[in-house]
Design brief:
By secondary structure, the chain is mainly α. The chain has one domain (4-250). It is built from ten helices and no strands.
Length: 251
């Protein structure tokens, strides 16, 4: 049997180290020019596009494979996605701008993005926590070497997206650190909940799917820069295939 405390400790390290590394990348790049800001945005859009596909798969596509057989689990998945979407927009509260449009890169929105990514992280933590007491090693608890590598890459890329919001909003290092906690702590909570939890992690992945749509709706309007069209296309594909490659390792 894997040592539960050791597995959780290593899982915490494997969550926060790559997450903060990812957060630091946009800060190192900066957004002082229009081209740099566009680069952060385009790569983030590509990352979240695949992220959406990934978490929706983990939520069994909101139970669409069940067809019109709406049992309670199917209904709860649908509601989780819808309520998660409404909840995240509801957290925005005050809206800025002369036309009543929300400012996509405020600290409030960056925190909501971090929280939304944390929704699916809670589900990931629950899955690891539920497996830990029934496996013989720490490696088995995370699904093997390749899935463990994929997990680390996922955290780096998720951190990159949150960091992009922070840099585009001109946020300080202190606030960047808080965003990392908002995004990463749900994973650790999930470890403990998963040890004895009767809850299905699929509901949290459905919430994560809603969060992905929220993030895309914040980022995509910033891509309307025709003079950088092909730069945008290429960087979108970079972000997309980075996340896709992590999925290949996970299998």
């Amino acid at each position: 049997m894997a040592d539960v405390a050791t597995t959780i400790a290593l899982g915490t390290v494997a969550t926060f180290v790559p997450l903060y590394f990812g957060l630091a990348i946009p800060k190192a790049i900066g957004a002082q020019t229009e081209r740099k800001a566009l680069a952060l945005t385009a790569v983030s859009v590509g990352i979240i596009f695949w992220f959406f596909l990934d978490v929706m798969g983990d939520s069994t596509l909101l139970g669409v494979n069940q067809g019109l057989n709406f049992d309670y689990a199917h209904v709860l998945l649908i509601l989780a996605f819808a309520l998660g979407f409404v909840f995240l927009f509801g957290l925005e509260g005050r809206r800025d701008g002369a036309e009543g449009l929300p400012n996509a890169f405020t600290y409030r929105v960056a925190a909501i993005v971090a929280l939304g990514i944390g929704f699916h992280a809670l589900g990931e933590g629950m899955d690891i926590g539920s497996i830990t007491p029934n496996v013989s090693s720490i490696i088995d608890a995370i699904g093997g070497v390749l899935p463990g590598t994929a997990y680390v890459i996922h955290k780096i890329l998720e951190g990159f997206v949150v960091g992009a919001f922070a840099v585009l909003g001109g946020l300080s290092y202190k606030k960047l650190g808080v965003l990392g906690l908002i995004s990463g702590v749900p994973t650790v909570l999930g470890f403990f909940i998963g040890l004895q939890s009767p809850f299905e992690s699929t509901y949290f992945f459905a919430l994560g799917g809603a969060a992905a749509v929220y993030v895309e709706m914040k980022l995509v309007p910033a891509l309307q820069l025709r003079k950088y069209l092909w730069t945008t296309v290429v960087l979108f594909l970079v972000g997309f295939f980075l996340m896709y490659s992590a999925g290949l390792l996970h299998g």
